[in-house]
Description:
Distance between the termini: 19 Å
Number of helices: 5
Order of helices and strands: HHHHH
Structural class: mainly alpha
Shape: elongated
Oligomer: single chain
Largest sheet: none
Amino acid sequence: MRKLTPLLILTFILRLILAFRSDANLGTRLFNDDSFYLHTVSKNIAAGNGMTIDGKQLTNGIQPIIVILNTPAYYLADMDRWLGLRLTFFLSA
């Protein structure tokens, strides 16, 4: 376990560094279509729109655990999409 601790600390720090990138880099790097979809659904759930991608039509094409974990980040961010995304980096770290 002692050999693993420095690696875990380094991984945690590197993951947190990603949260402090500029808004332009935050939204364009390390994300693909699936993550955009998951974060949009999380944001809509936090807004009270339900499990939807566009705020109107319901969807079930998500990975439910990560959406459930990300939803409080968007709720706490008061619907600020950049702050919500940054908070999800803290969660994943």
